[in-house]
Amino acid sequence: MKTRVITALVAIIGITPFFWFSDIKEPTNPLTYLFPLLIAAIAFVSVWEMLHCLHLDKNYVISVPLYIAALVFPILARVMHGNLTEYVRVAMITALVMAIYLFASVVFQFGKVESGKIALVFMTGFYIIGANSAVIILRDMEGIGQYLFLIPYIFSWVTDSFAYFCGRAFGKHKLIEAVSPKKTVEGAIGGFVFCAITAVLYGLIVGNCFDVTPNYLVLGLGGMVIGVVSQIGDLVMSAIKREQGVKDYGHILPGHGGLLDRFDSSMAVTVLVLLISMYFPIFTV
Fold it and tell me: Which of 161, 220, 246, 260 to pair with 53, CA 20 to 30 A apart?
């Protein structure tokens, strides 16, 4: 626990400047690309961790295109912030081309790589890169982005933390023991409840401290859904690890494991928050 806390504090201190200077500035100002570079680095390492888990990180035919996409698309989201429709079109075309490319690799590497692993690489790679790119899209939403992009991190980590503490205090029934032996039903409920409470409190803090109006209905209901999706994101990545016989995706964060071990739940939440914000206003100016 001590190592986990120290690592978390060091990480928070390290990323704070990137978050502080995360807004869009003049195109010639290098600070404009500071935050996207951080997210691109997270996406790149996360993709490497997944490929390494599947023993495909040294299969450069498969890995290199994914590495390039992981670096390019978070930065491209900032470059094309004024034309989200065109960005989505580019992303969809790239995903289709990547699918055809990986289909071809199934044929040309037949007998060398399991087709199921290649399919899993496409699915998880698209998910990791898309979720991290969505962070930039959330941040660049005019007038409210600075409040939206923090939601996936705050809400997912609150869910994880209270699921752990509630599980330690009240846990008696295993949730899905084969996937995550230490998680309990009581812990999952605790994480869900405290996520919903945090969503409303976050709205109160932002609404009282800044010139925006929170939609408490969306925050409350969204917080409930986020509490569930956050834990599903965590469990999905745990299931992949268990299938591959791996304890952690990496060792870059002492006490936590790899970036995928730390950001697995927040990536799932990022996608959800982006979907919610596109159809239901979480904050209005």
Answer: 161
